[in-house]
Design a protein that fits this description.
The longest helix is centred in the middle third of the chain and has 50 residues. The chain has seven helices and seven strands; from the N terminus they run ααααβαββαββαββ. With 359 residues, it is an alpha+beta fold. 57% of the residues lie in helices and 13% in strands. Strand 6 and strand 7 form a beta hairpin.
Length: 359
Amino acid sequence: MRRRPGLSVRLKLTLSYAGFLAVAGALLLAVVWGFLLRYVPDNSQGLLGISPNRYLLEHTFAPAAAVAMAFLLVFGLVGGWILAGRMLAPLTQITAAARTAGNGSLSHRIRMEGRQDEFRELADTFDTMLEQLESHVAEQQRFAANASHELRTPLAISQTLLDVARRDRTRDQDELFERLQAVNTRAIDLTEALLLLSRSDRGNFTRESVDLSLVAEEAAETLLPLAEQRGITLDVTGAATRTSGSAELLLRMVTNLVQNAIVHNLPVGGTVTVHTEAQGGASVVRVANTGHPLPPELVPTLTEPFRRGTERLRTDEHAGVGLGLAIVHSIVRAHDGTLGLVPRPAGGLLVTVRLPGTP
């Protein structure tokens, strides 16, 4: 935004200091002039015949007063310029840091020294903002790179299959179509997951009252065939608990949690438990499953997009796109809730979602 040039803050402060000092000096001289000279007699003999008369004092006092006023004005300008420079030095440092950040360098920090005051508080707030912004930009860059890599993989596979089919006309066309369909389905799933993640991050959805117990039952009913196919016992317990949000997104959140709990489970005889309850003014959904023990250092990374631990990586038809828990985390955050991941001592994971409750 282009603005018309104006006076600098330092010059404005300097003029303010000098003006204030000049006005104070003028008032002081006026007081002396009005209250001192009024008691000096205006005659040729002066006071008691030994003091100067008013005429002589006026002609002696006026030049000295003018010199004093000129000195106060110059002193006010010089002193005000120096004081304003010292006072605004931290602001100049903050401005330089902001200009550096505006040029794309987010790693610079002010780290202003000295005791706490308004400028130090502003500098510390600016450093915190830069730190969060740098972290967010780095996260977005990693996400873009990972998303590009994930989207490139099915396209590269499709290109390879088509090249092989073009060179080998005798190859089984049904097998080619089947593999192309599988690759295309995975690309579509990944694209839809990215769109859903973007939508939940923006938070532009209509809120309504949602019963999480009904959402849990619907998600369990949808995934029951998958659980039976893998020999997993799926239980839904708890009472009705309501929250305000998008029914579609909340259903996707619970569905992702239950699907992850089913897929990442024991080969035989595993269990998945979904429990809903109202607790301390919050609506709580807990999803617990059996499975292999998870390293504690792996758990915090599970909500990052495209992060798959080797213990959770699958190569079957339920391999996923690495966005399941990232979408869950985004939906929970968009609904002003919290997501907790705790590895179970016997193996598996306990996921706790807390959302603001409604009557």
